[in-house]
């Protein structure tokens, strides 16, 4: 294993700044005034980044973004509600698995994973299943790098009187949502994506009117209403908070502000993605997903015909150089994902491109494996 630090071109966790990592090196008591103040500060910061008004509450939870998604799905729909899950990738499929495990009444609309949500098919599903009260979807499916039209889905939900539960884990802080829309009910997010924090804390943004309704709990530690109630009563978590991770997130948000916030981060990601795609195109690699369904966060790439590239060999080659990408399987395409989020620079992109150039040059010079037919004994 290489001794150098890794540069992570992945969906997350991402590369973080040294001050963010250093911020996690302090110990504070979980019941201390400092901890209470830190929780309140982070909740307020998350609301400000979202652009929410006072109708919303930011409820923190220990764990990854999936913890927030599971908490959202388990806590908010009542026993007599019915959830329509729009499945067009691995993370919306995870929503389906959560609902099956917890026996949450739901239907599934399966759509192609290589393109965004088809709103006409969603509307057809709503007319065919009139009992739907909630719709769940993922803002950006990082499994392939597919953006979904949540604004369009919001307008559709407004017309049909449904509440939206959105996984915005990989987009929060860069791609906006319309929190003024009546149908938007809750949004799950994580610290270790576009906010460039450390993994271990997640949030669910929930409308306060939804928190005020009574629903029989399906879970103990992931009960959003109970967690929100505890924080409102005395500012304290029900269970031990991830305080070091929270300190790191505070530092990450400070840096996010200093760097210009959402618009500046979006521009930085866009510049990196354009630089990456231009360089990869020159090396013979192109995106699998069409432009209307891409966002400057993660892209799935595949070699052009005639470009030698074994994904497992490529992954090992890059790993030995401290460069980490995520292999993926998309149908029968020999493909992989590259992300441009986190604390990366254009020089990091250039270093990755140079490694790809070295790999493809070596692969082109490697002798071809023998033809199996030529090894057969003569009859």
Structural class: alpha/beta
Overall strand count: 15
Helix content: 25-40%
Please count the helical segments: 12
Return residue spans where pLDDT drops below 50 for at least 5 consecutive residues. 368-379
Percent range for β-strand residues: 15-25%
Based on CA atoms alone, the radius of gyration comes out at 23 Å
Distance between the termini: 49 Å
The topology string of helices and strands comes to EHHEHEHEHEEEHEEEHHHHEEHEEEH
Strands in their spatial order, largest beta sheet: 2-10-9-8-5-3-4
The geometry reads as globular
**Average residue pLDDT:** 93
The largest β sheet comes out as:
7 strands, mixed
What would you say this structure looks like, in words?
There is one protein chain. The protein is of the alpha/beta class and 379 residues long. Helix content is 40%, strand content 18%. It is built from 12 helices and 15 strands. The strands form 4 sheets. The protein has a 7-stranded mixed sheet with strand order 2-10-9-8-5-3-4, sandwiched between helices. The protein has a 4-stranded antiparallel sheet with strand order 11-12-15-14, covered by helices on one side. It has a two-stranded parallel ribbon with strand order 1-13. Strand 14 (326-330) and strand 15 form a beta hairpin. Helix 2 crosses helix 9 and helix 5 (119-128) runs parallel beside helix 6 (150-160). The radius of gyration is 23 Å and the shape is globular. The protein starts with 6 loop residues before the first strand and ends in a 14-residue tail after the last helix. The relative contact order is 0.17.
């Amino acid at each position: 294993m290489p001794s150098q630090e890794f540069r992570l071109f992945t969906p997350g966790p991402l590369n973080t700044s040294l001050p963010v990592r250093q911020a996690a090196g302090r110990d504070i008591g979980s019941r201390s005034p400092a901890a209470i103040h830190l929780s309140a500060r982070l909740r307020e910061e998350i609301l400000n980044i979202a652009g929410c008004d006072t109708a919303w509450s930011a409820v923190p939870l220990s764990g990854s973004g999936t913890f927030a998604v599971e908490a959202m799905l388990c806590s908010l729909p009542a026993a007599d509600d019915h959830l329509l899950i729009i499945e067009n990738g691995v993370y919306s499929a995870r929503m389906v698995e959560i609902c099956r495990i917890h026996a949450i009444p739901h239907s599934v609309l399966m759509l192609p994973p290589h393109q965004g949500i088809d709103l006409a098919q969603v509307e057809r599903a709503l007319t065919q299943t009139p009992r739907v009260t909630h719709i769940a979807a993922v803002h950006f499916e990082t499994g392939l790098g597919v953006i979904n039209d949540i604004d369009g889905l919001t307008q559709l939900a407004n017309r049909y009187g449904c509440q939206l539960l959105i996984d915005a884990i990989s987009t929060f802080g860069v791609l906006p949502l319309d929190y003024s829309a009546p149908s938007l009910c809750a949004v799950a997010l994580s610290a270790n994506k576009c906010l460039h924090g450390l993994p271990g804390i997640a949030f669910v943004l929930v409308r306060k009117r939804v928190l005020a309704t009574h629903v029989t709990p399906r879970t103990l530690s992931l009960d959003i209403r109970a967690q929100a109630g505890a924080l409102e009563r005395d500012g304290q978590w029900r269970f031990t908070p991830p305080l070091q991770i929270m300190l790191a997130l505070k530092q990450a948000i400070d840096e996010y502000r200093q760097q210009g916030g959402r618009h500046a981060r979006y521009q930085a990601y866009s510049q990196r993605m354009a630089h990456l795609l231009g360089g990869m195109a020159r090396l013979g690699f192109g995106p699998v997903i069409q432009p209307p369904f891409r966002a400057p966060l993660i892209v799935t790439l595949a070699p052009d015909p005639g470009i030698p590239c074994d994904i497992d060999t490529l992954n090992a080659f890059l790993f030995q150089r401290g460069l980490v990408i995520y292999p993926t399987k998309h149908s029968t395409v020999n493909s992989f994902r590259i992300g441009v989020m986190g604390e990366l620079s254009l020089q990091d992109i250039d270093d990755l491109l140079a490694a790809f150039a070295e790999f493809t040059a070596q692969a082109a010079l490697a002798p071809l494996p023998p033809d199996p037919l030529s090894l057969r004994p003569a009859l």
